[in-house]
Amino acid sequence: MNIKNNILHYQKELARTGCKLIAVSKTKPIEALIEAYEAGVKDFGENKVQELVEKQELLPSDITWHMIGHLQRNKVKYIAPFIGLIHAVDSQKLLKEIDKEGKKNNRVIPCLLQIYIAAEETKFGLSEDELRELLASSTFESMNNIKITGFMGMATFTDNANQIRKEFQSLQRIFEDCKAGFNHKNLALQELSMGMSNDYKIAIEEGSTMVRIGSAIFGAR
Ligand SMILES: *Cc1c(COP(=O)(O)O)cnc(C)c1O
């Protein structure tokens, strides 16, 4: 694996599209992240709080850290002071906790709501109904230290490109509907986080603004 070459490849490919690259560095050693940083990466994605915090302490402060994995409420406090974007908010309870920790840290924490689009049982996320309920709730309205800047979704893990495309299209449709249907101080819907190493091309074609790429940059985990 030549991390530098891989990064340059994706930066070039993404430059045409305006889509942002999130380098997913979970399980990879600090040296690998430094190599990516030196190749120009400023956005790193991790899925475990402890690992994210450890790496954040060791790496330059101009990095934007993305929490891309399922987040437990009792761990929000560890990342609240610095996290750049939380991608996988999937309940109002979690959002409330992030809001509380945002207030303690005197900041507004950018979040994406994770929407369930896959056919698999195991994936986290809100259904479209749950999403609408959350966005319309007075609890959501009363928050002052979070901002929902978009949605995140994961397609089914399959070779069926058609199915993946349909799932991304459904997220894009929900995104457009919510942009048109909800107007709110806590909402600034501009990001669609979708696409990973195996399906990022389809995701970009279907409107992704951030792709989360791990193994295609850093090698298999
Ligand atoms: C691990 C992970 C990725 C990156 O997956 P790759 O297939 O290695 O590119 C993207 N998003 C989430 C939520 C992940 O957990």
Structure description:
- By secondary structure, the chain is α/β, with parallel strands linked by helices.
- The protein has a single domain (3-218), classed as Alpha-Beta Barrel (TIM Barrel).
- Helices cover 42% and strands 19% of the residues.
- The protein is built from ten helices and eight strands.
- It has helices spanning 3-15, 30-38, 49-58, 76-79, 92-104, 128-136, 138-141, 161-181, 200-205, 215-218; strands at residues 20-24, 43-46, 64-67, 85-89, 109-114, 146-152, 187-193, 210-213.
- Strands 7-6-5-4-3-2-1-8 form an eight-stranded parallel sheet.
- Strand 1, helix 2 and strand 2 form a beta-alpha-beta unit.
- The longest helix has 21 residues, at 161-181.
- The chain is globular.
- The mean pLDDT is 96.
- Bound molecules: pyridoxal-5'-phosphate.
- Pyridoxal-5'-phosphate (PLP) binds at residues 24, 26, 47, 68-69, 196-198, 212-216.
Largest sheet: 8 strands, parallel
How do the strands of the widest beta sheet line up side by side? 7-6-5-4-3-2-1-8
How far apart the termini lie comes to 12 Å
Q: How many independent structural domains?
A: 1
From the structure above, extract its key features.
TIM Barrel; 8-stranded parallel beta sheet; 8 strands; globular; 221 residues; 19% strand; binds pyridoxal-5'-phosphate; 10 helices; alpha/beta
